[in-house]
Amino acid sequence: MKTVTEFPRKVVEFPDMGIVMPDGCRLSARVWMPEDATDSPVPAILEHLPYRKRDGTVFRDQLTHPYFAGHGYASIRVDMRGNGDSEGLMDDEYSEQELQDACDVVAWAAAQPWCNGNVGMMGISWGGFNCLQVAAKQPPALKAVISLCSTVDRYADDIHYKGGCLLLENFGWASTMLSYSSRPPDPAIAGGNRWRDLWLSRLENQPFLLPLWLSHQHRDAYWKRGSICEDFSAVKAAVLSIGGWHDGYRNTISNLVTSIQSPVKGIVGPWIHKYPHYAGPSPAIGFLQEALRWWDRWLKDTETGVEADPDYRAYVMDSVRPARWHPERPGRWVAEQEWPSSNIKIEAIELISAGARPSIVASPQTCGLAGGEYFPFTFGPELPGDQRPDDALSVCFDRPELGEAIDIVGAPELEVRIAADRPQANIAVRLCDVHPDGASELISYGVLNLTHRISHEFPQALVPGETVSARVVLDQCAYRVPAGHKLRVAVSTAYWPMIWPSPEPVWLDLVKATLKLPLRPLAKGDEVAFPEPEGATAWATEEIRPTNSERHIDRDEKTGLVTLSITDDFGEVRDLDHGLVNGSIVRETWAIHPDDPLSATGATHWTQTLSRNEWSVRTETYARMRSDAGNFIVSARIEAYEGEKLVFERDFEQTIPRSLV
User: Fold this and answer.
1) Cβ pair 247, 375 in contact under 8 A
2) DSSP assignment of 597-650, as one string?
3) CA-based nearest residue to 31, from 10, 52, 46
4) Rounded CA gap, 392 and 596, in Å?
5) Which residues of 276-294 are buried (b: 16+ CB within 10 A; e: fewer)?
6) Which of 73, 79, 28, 164 is closest to 500 using CA atoms?
7) Looking at residues 346-369, what average pLDDT do you find?
8) Of residues 384, 365, 388, 428, the one with CA closest to residue 555
């Protein structure tokens, strides 16, 4: 990445600019803007997050926001209420209070003497979600949005449920937020002992969100609120949607470009859950330059040509050897001027010959351990590995060796006729690239709770033995399968630890299976280009403890229990500007017996540390989840320490009835 130190306008920074909400709650914002903005007002760009601007997102903030400011913007990074250095309490993700606060910040920014009245909103993940949701509320000053790694559907395409199956990320993310929001404001910002009062109030009221999310197992009003797919026409702001093929949110870009009526463009690269100017696998792109083209057009009314850009720009990844991490993905950029594209042709392939006996699918509960993380973000061993261990536990349909390469661009589908021996059953479908030596690389996957085959809102129990039709939609992808390789469709009844298992072992009779494959004419090279990555001067830190990521799978030969253990040590660093030291470690364990879905357990333990000179605090959070045939049983604990003194402890425990999940 090229570091830019000289900008068209000189930048000033305000590390703690207070923004008081109508109810009196003070939000803390870090703001960068041109030094002469009051004399020559500029548009504002807002990023509204719970992830702590002081010590959480500071790495990416430092690369990004001063860069925008230097090019004539007031770039505003706000800590949401109840997090970081802001007052108040948070009770859920994307709450009406959160979205109203964001609308109020937009209005506040537009009214400042240094702002020209136009505001943009951007973000990745949480910030990518809420900028779309805020856009749907149509605050008058909000003219443009850049949303990365986000969703249009909070139920069907977030970290909670997928295809009506319960994602284990539902538990994992609830545990993460319990830890993230347990930390206090920085005393250097809050002042005196006020930081302690805010911290203890935050801890007393800290929600463990898992029981709430588990109490809405179907696509009810809880999930519809904030899902902009309920009314795409509500979004009037211009939207640039960006994502990565190694991220969990692959489908939003296509959904937005297809569905909203305001100006919209989409870009999908080979990246994990990161901003694309520093993301991996490479190639990264000049995201900040691309963002400036978007902001300049819609916030400054400068002709930048973005309207003429292709609707959909995607990186078609070449086949590579399976690995848990790829530093780079060779491939090429393709461009579709309109999306959906008439260049994409659907090839229907019958996988079961007419008159053939049904294929019997009855996977061990451990099938799925090669699947990787739902949304990788550590630049570590989190990607899908060689699929052969999971293929061996699945029913596989191998296509003949390819005589010539093919480009798959879009969302593959598998249409099935199927019968189950239980009233609730899950099906997982993986599309794999099989190398000549047998190595199996994951291209895309999809899962479906068969009770949700007609509706996520009103699922219907299966009648054991009755054959039904269902459609499994795999995630969007862009992948070249070379000549000499084979395509494999692998079908299983389990996908652990991506989804929670059905309450009983399942036997499926697969009577018919039709693969719908989206094929694009073979790209001969890059059809579009991006500038090389740039950024402002990087965050200045001193490393106290290095980062480290580890994954281990252990099989107890006596009990048969299989345990996946993950440790992500995010290290510890000292900020060389204000001196705050922060560190973070998470340990996860996921255990299951191959023959018993009710043996499934998940457990997490997070440690967060903050210190400066003689002051130090630490929070420890623990969470656990299991189920029986009729219930989910969850528990959690928070411990907070000032120095080595325990100053707060709290336990959560709840049982939630299970309903066709």
Assistant:
1) yes
2) EEEEEEEEEEEEEEEETTEEEEEEEEEEEEE-SSEEEEEEEEEEEETTEEEEEE
3) 46
4) 19
5) bbbbbbebbbbbbbbbbeb
6) 164
7) 96
8) 365
Choose among 615, 589, 596: nearest CA to 184.
615
Contacting residues for 221 by C-beta, under 8 A, at least 6 apart: none
Amino acid at 227: S
Task: Please state the rounded mean pLDDT for residues 585-596.
Answer: 98
Would you state the pLDDT for residue 377?
A: 87
Other CB atoms within 10 A of residue 577 CB: 13
Q: Report which of 647, 655, 580 is spatially closest to residue 620, judged by C-alpha positions.
A: 647
Contact 463, 440 (CB under 8 A): no
pLDDT over threshold 90, residue 581: yes
Collect all residues with Cβ–Cβ distance below 8 Å to 100 and sequence separation of at least 6. none
- Write b or e for each residue in 522-551: b if 16 or more Cβ atoms lie within 10 A of its Cβ, otherwise e: ebeeeeeebeebbbbeeeebeeeeebebeb
In the structure encoding, which two tokens stand for residue 565, read together? 């253990």
pTM of the model: 0.97
Q: Write the pLDDT tens digit of every residue in 195-243.
A: 999 999 999 999 999 999 999 999 999 999 999 999 999 999 999 999 9
Tell me: cis bond preceding 340? Omega within 30 of 0 counts.
yes
Coil, helix or strand for 278? coil
Q: Tell me the pLDDT tens digit for each residue of 494-520.
A: 999 999 999 999 999 999 999 999 999
Give residue 375's pLDDT: 87
> Other C-beta atoms within 10 Å of 327: how many?
9
Do 62 and 32 form a contact (C-beta atoms < 8 A)? no
Q: How confident is the model at residue 532 (pLDDT cuts 50, 70, 90)?
A: very high
